[in-house]
Fold this sequence. Notes:
Blueprint: H1 2-41, H2 44-50, E1 51-61, E2 64-68, H3 70-83, E3 84-97, E4 100-111, E5 117-129, E6 132-140, H4 142-149
Parallel strand pairs: 1-6
Antiparallel strand pairs: 1-2, 3-4, 4-5, 5-6
Helix pairs in contact: 1-2
Amino acid sequence: MMRALRALAVVAAVGALAAIVSRRRRDAGEVVQRYFEAWAHGDSDAIGDLLTDDYCGHVHTLVGTETRHLEELAAVLRGHRDAFEWTEFDVRDVVAADGRLAARVAMRTRHRETGREGEIEGLAIFSLEDGRIAEEWSSWDYLGLADQLGIRSAG
Length: 155
């Protein structure tokens, strides 16, 4: 009888631990989803709520790697909102471990000036502190997007 009770206690503990880990992964995935939803809507307030005060982003762009802090990210977000009629993100995969998240994401958008649509994929790695994004490393196919939208300059 005692063995059965101990076994039941172990099963319950393992189940509880699995639920906690699953919830943490789901919560982490929700942070990523909300981050890209804020991007899609051009919502710098929502982005700010998801980031730590000392957020630092490292983003591979057409001209190299940019380091962005909260203010720069808000400016880039406003520029994105002004350049595109609409943007949709599809978070395809999220892997979470040790306070970090890796996400494979697709972005579809329509450029205001050309009226052309494009789709690119990107990879982003996030470091979380207390459920907020503290640091980001991301890489997107901006050159491919520029080609699709007809805005890549020759030369």
